[in-house]
Amino acid sequence: MLWLREMKSMWRAKSRVVGTLGMPFFFLAFLGLGFQRAEIPGVPAGEYVLFLTPGIIGMTILFSSTFAGISVIWDRQFGFLKEVMVAPVSRLSIVIGRACGGATVSLIQGISILFLSIPLGFRFELWAIAPAIAVMCLISFGFIGLGLIFAALMSDPHGFSLVMNFVVFPIFLLSGALFPVDALPAWLLPACYADPLTYGVDCLRCVLSPEIARFPLLLDLSVLILFASLTLGSSTLLFEHAEVEG
To answer: Tens digits of per-residue pLDDT, 164-176?
Structure first.
């Protein structure tokens, strides 16, 4: 029911989905076309769109997933969350419902960016669509869990937005979404390797553009599954111990 509520909310506010696609598409169009002829170490000559598209898909899912947690805070403000949490259902069901709803919205946006990239010169095999969707789901569940952790610990939606921006932008910029991480100073590389989105973006490249992937597919998948398990498990524990305010 929580998933269905999120789907109805998205359907009634289609401008929300369309609006969130604007920034990723402009990133993809202007950076992809602007740097298409640039010589970037680690990127095949004239193939920057091939390198950039998985990164922009990762960015779209990252922002959409983490900020899904703000709806939990708004529901707490308006009392809906209290009604759900006193219902005779497990807190795990609440987290799963929230995660599935947010993941579906993120997935729609990620797939939209994938197909919007085709006119810009991105190419991929048709068989890669299903594995790419599976990878998008893993990325989404991991960062939805992260957003729910912050939502469980905070009550101010404005403070949530500020904190998540402080967290999300370094995750995005250190992930190698826009440029190879090898181009960064050596002292920043440990932070890049600790960034779960680094493996999410690389996993998308393994599936869509294997010639430019950096890590083995098994390593990428292992990190994504571990990250999603940790964040969703932690958010469930936090909701289990959360008090319902009267």
So the answer is: 788 888 999 899 8
The predicted pLDDT at position 74 comes to 66
Residue with tokens 């029911």: 1
- Phi-psi domain of 224 (left: phi exceeds 0; alpha: psi -120 through 50; beta: other): alpha
CA distance 216 to 194: 16
Pair 182, 198: CB distance under 8 Å: no
- C-alpha angle 101/147/77, rounded to 5°? 80
Are 10 and 16 a contacting pair, CB within 8 Å?
yes
| Residue 245, CA distances (Å) to 88, 147, 156, 235, 242 in order | 17, 21, 15, 18, 9
Q: In this structure, how many other beta carbons lie within 10 angstroms of the beta carbon of residue 235?
A: 28
pLDDT of 41-90, one tens digit each? 767 766 788 888 999 999 999 988 887 767 776 666 655 566 666 555 66
List the one residue out of 147, 144, 180, 228 whose CA is nearest residue 55. 180
What rounded mean pLDDT belongs to the chain? 81
pLDDT of residue 9: 67
- Helices and strands in the chain, H and E counts: 12, 0
Helix (H, G, I), strand (E, B) or coil at 165: helix
Indicate the domain borders of the chain. 2-240
DSSP code at position 122: -
- Residue 178, H or E segment: none
Say how many CA atoms lie within 13 Å of 124 toward its Cβ. 28
Side chain identity at residue 209, one-letter code: S
